[in-house]
Amino acid sequence: MGAAPKVVLDTNVIISALGWNGPERRVYELCMRGQIELCLCPAILEELLRVLEYPKFKFPRSHKAALVQDLLRIATLSEPDTAPDIVKEDPADNHLLACATAAQAQFLLTGDQHLLQLSRYGSTTICTAAVFLNPAPA
Question: Which pTM was predicted?
Answer without folding.
Answer: 0.89
